[in-house]
Design brief:
- By secondary structure, the protein is α+β, with helices and mostly antiparallel strands.
- The chain has two domains: 33 residues; 182 residues, Porin.
- 24% of the residues lie in helices and 49% in strands.
- An eight-stranded antiparallel barrel has the order 1-2-3-4-5-6-7-8.
- A hairpin with a 2-residue loop joins strand 7 and strand 8.
- The protein starts with a helix and ends in an 8-residue tail after the last helix.
């Protein structure tokens, strides 16, 4: 008898839960249906340059190329990029490193001085970005995005070449990207871009502000700045 009552209660509970969960599943399925690889094709090529600030480094110039592969969803586009910058460690970071080395060096007379000079760090960055676009009116588009990146870093300097320090700086690591920016139509095919980008990665966080020019290929002009599919 008790088993029958419990089975009945379970059936009633499922009867309430299943209809309630159906709209949520339908909504989720609807969102997923908006994403499609069918429209992905090379739609634009962008060259950009700007200034970059980073933790532990002095300011640097950064440049890159970006490839727009069109819309993966009605307002979401996919971009692949390649960037490069070269900078050197700031004096505060060098001083801390020199002090750390001095603390482990055996110096009975106490008159040795450690000077590392300049230590450079370069970074080749490949990234994948998903950008959500907000048409602002005729000829202007704002966008915000996120993505992932891979970093190929190389350290160099007369004091560290061939040492374990250089080996420690020569790394391949991943990062997370965040972007916000604007596109302005100059011609039917040419766009002027302003882009702010932040990157979180192992051992280094960077922020950059770049301007550039994007050439829209015929396949991407229908979905260019100021228009949405």
């Amino acid at each position: 008898m008790r088993s029958s009552i419990r089975a009945g209660r379970l059936a009633i509970l499922l009867g309430f839960l299943l209809p309630a969960g159906a709209p949520a599943r339908a909504a989720a399925q609807g969102v997923l249906n908006e994403f499609s690889y069918d429209n992905l094709r090379l739609s634009g090529i962008q060259l950009d340059v700007g200034v970059l600030g980073a933790t532990q480094l002095t300011g640097a110039t950064v440049g890159g190329v970006r490839f727009d592969f069109g819309r993966i969803a009605p307002r979401v586009r996919l971009l692949l990029g390649l960037s490069y910058f070269r900078s050197h460690f700031d004096q505060e970071t060098l001083t801390r490193f020199e002090q750390a080395l001095d603390s482990i060096v055996i110096d009975p007379s106490g008159d040795d001085t450690i000077r590392l000079g300049t230590i450079n760090l370069s970074d080749v960055i490949g990234d994948i970005d998903f950008q959500y676009v907000f048409p602002q009116g005729h000829g202007i588009t704002a966008y915000i995005g996120t993505g992932v990146s891979i970093h190929l870093r190389n350290g160099s300097g007369s004091a560290i070449n061939g040492t374990f320090v250089e080996d420690a700086l020569d790394v391949v690591t991943a990062g997370l990207n965040g972007t916000v920016g604007f596109e302005f139509n100059l011609t039917h095919a040419l766009r002027f871009t302003v882009d702010a980008r932040g990157v979180l990665s192992s051992g280094l966080q960077t922020a950059s502000l770049r301007t550039g020019l994007m050439y829209r290929l015929p396949a991407g002009r229908v979905q260019g700045a100021g228009k949405s599919k």
